[in-house]
Amino acid sequence: MAKKSVWSDNRFWQRSATWVTGFASILLIWLTFDTSAQIAMGNDKNLKDGVTKRVPGPTVINYKITYEMSNKRGHEVPIIGGNDGKGNSLFQQKEKFFGRDDYSEKEARALLHLGKLGSQAKNCMDCHTLLGNGAYYAPDLTKAWLDPAWGPDGAMQALTGKNTKEEAMAEFLQHPDQYPTHARMMPNLGITAKEAKGLVAFLKHMSSIDTNGFPRNFGKIKGAVHGK
Amino acid sequence: MIDPSVIRPEIALGDFLPIFVSSALVLVFGGFYVGIYTAVKVKMLKPWFIALAYMFWLLTAYCLYLMGSLMHVGEFTAKALVVAAIGLILLPHAVYYMQDQVHKKNEH
Amino acid sequence: MASKYLTGTGSESKQLATWYFTFAAILFGAQLLFGLVAATQYVMPGFLYGILDFSIARIIHINALVVWMVFAMFGSVYWLLPDETGIETVGIKIGKLLFWIFAAAIVVVVLVFLFIQVGKADATTIWFITEGREYIEAPRWADWGIVVVALGFVGNLFLTGMKGKQTGIVTVLMADMIAFAGLYLAGMFFTDNISVDQYWWWWVIHLWVEATWEVFVGAIAAYGLIKMLGAHRQVVEMWLWIEVAMLFGSGILGLGHHYFWIGTPEYWWEIGALFSALEPLPLVAMFVHVLYDWGKTQGSEEEKGNTNSVINNKPAFTWFVLNAFGNFLGAGVWGFFHTLPQINLYTHGTQFTSAHGHLAFFGAYATILIGMFYIAVQGTNGIKVMKHTRASIWATSMITGGMMGMTVALTIAGYVQVIVSRAQMGATWAGYFDGQSGMWFQQAMDWRLIMGLVIFTGFIILAKDLLTTGKNPVHER
Predict the structure, then answer these.
(1) Which residues does chain C have within 8 Å of residue B43's beta carbon, measured at their own beta carbons?
(2) Could you give the CA distance from residue C63 to residue C28 in angstroms, rounded to a whole number?
(3) What is the pLDDT of residues C62-75, one digit of tens each?
(4) Which of residues 38-57 of A touch C (CB under 8 A)?
(5) CB pair distance less than 8 Å for B7 and A7
(6) C342 in contact with A, Cβ within 8 Å
(7) C327 lies in the same domain as C263
């Protein structure tokens, strides 16, 4: 029975394991280079030139953002500054954000930076999900900017006594315990007015990220976003 | 690129439950297949149980098919599922063959 | 066989292992306690509101989980090193020092989480209070502390492995632990781009729990089979290499199933779907392997006319079998049924993920690490054949049963969310709360809390058993 079989040779399997692991790792690294290039944040020039980026530049907060079906992609995509009718962004239609639609690249970047830092400093992810990741104790924030609840027909503007989406959101973030929407309330996390503005910019920017159609049918049922 | 006319179909509301059940059963049946196969081989069960093992594999394959068609997987994913099913049927054979070889080599 | 390293007495490495195990068990208790707080808040939202909010309870729940497992993993390695290499662990004094540094750092981090909780939106908060990234919330200073401790640990492992006998198990652990430590670096930077943030965040989370930790479990299972069954080393180690190939072969690119919706390109759908479909195969294979070795070893003993069980540590072996089964069920079944992008579009970010997370962490890791606790109890008390006690049976049944019950409850809750919040309501704020208010969802949350209490009671009994069973006269010495 001393017949040598390669299948029962430890060294053969050790080498196989090494090769398989090495191959998978190299493939992952290669894909990482490709993905990194594709998800690098765009800039103001891209938006002005009409270049669609998966993660647009921070000045996207100057534009109107919607979430609409793209026939080509087979799912919804973020539409920035108007739809050309085929599911592509026109990058034309602006939208005021705290009264302005002319944030410079530097200003917008600073706001986004503050917002992203704030999202981590306040542990947002330990109740909410961002891009679907996090905790499940509170609503997903991926497309929160586009949520009909905060729009002109939603309840939140009236509740907070504000006339725009961004002001309503900022007011809520600063005093969440004053505006309960459910028995489960968001606690007061000591968010300042400045931080709230940054957080809303962060949310608006996040809604412009191309998430391959997640969440599906966002806002479809309660009208507003998809239905126009 | 995806053909413009193909819009990814929605999953029907009533299909969610069968999808979850069938995809859970894929591995439950798969586990039975592999478990019974091994148990027969190491003589914990009588040889005729092997037929039962293969029956469980058939159930696995059916569940994979059901799950894939209900969630309208694309061509690529469908192929991946077929590969997984074939992988599963071969797996215990390969494992047992190799383990046996090593055992023989080391015990005699 | 009479090596002093087989028992705990006389080996400093094994002594250090017991320290690690003890601290791990304490953190395990803390994990369950804060889990109960969070579960109560789902049922009674006013509970500790404004004092210990859900976010804080959950941070401690999941960070205690990760840290107790890391502690128990380090402990397991320090435990098995003398057995495998035949020598005392090199640099054990540094190892002991690092243990105290690590433990002290954890205590400070937890106190800051508990009493400071959140900070201003600036870099100081990221450095000293919280990094706010799920599972790796520990502030940046602690990250660097962890890197230093991990390097010391990997150093000990490498020096011992190279000086002593380098078995297959030790070789796998050496390669695996360096990847495990190195991957942590991917989670230590700040970026404004949340897609890039999550891309690298998953390198830490996924490549830990679905690749390097799984391989670690394979190595520990191999060690356990040799120790508890007297399984043939050649067979076990060959099998370990096959597992490494299968786990890394499917697990590394299985990373793709986290890249469906975070802004990354669509080709990850295909990569994620393919490798996710393959990911359960090694788990099935690991299950077969345990069954095979058990059957074969018992069979060959019976041929010699020995009808006694070949298992020399019943409680540990029970946990090892539960590991093979739980890994298959939690990571395999519960992972597979929401892994394909077509269905994940609806299940991503619902209680389904939570159900899978609970059962997978428990089935794949908690079980085998508790098994290692029992092996250490056996070793330190010089027990030849360790038997079940009434307490060990109760603890095992309550923890496992509670976990299964909780998983089923969370699965039902997830189903409600998928149907109501996602498919019908399109994932909005209103849709979310409609789902949460559903009767089925709420009852599922009640059951989750009840099952949590069952698990916690089981844990108390487990702790009692681990502390007392060593002196129990039922065991053969």
Answers:
(1) 295, 299
(2) 10
(3) 999 999 999 999 99
(4) 38-41, 54-55
(5) no
(6) no
(7) no
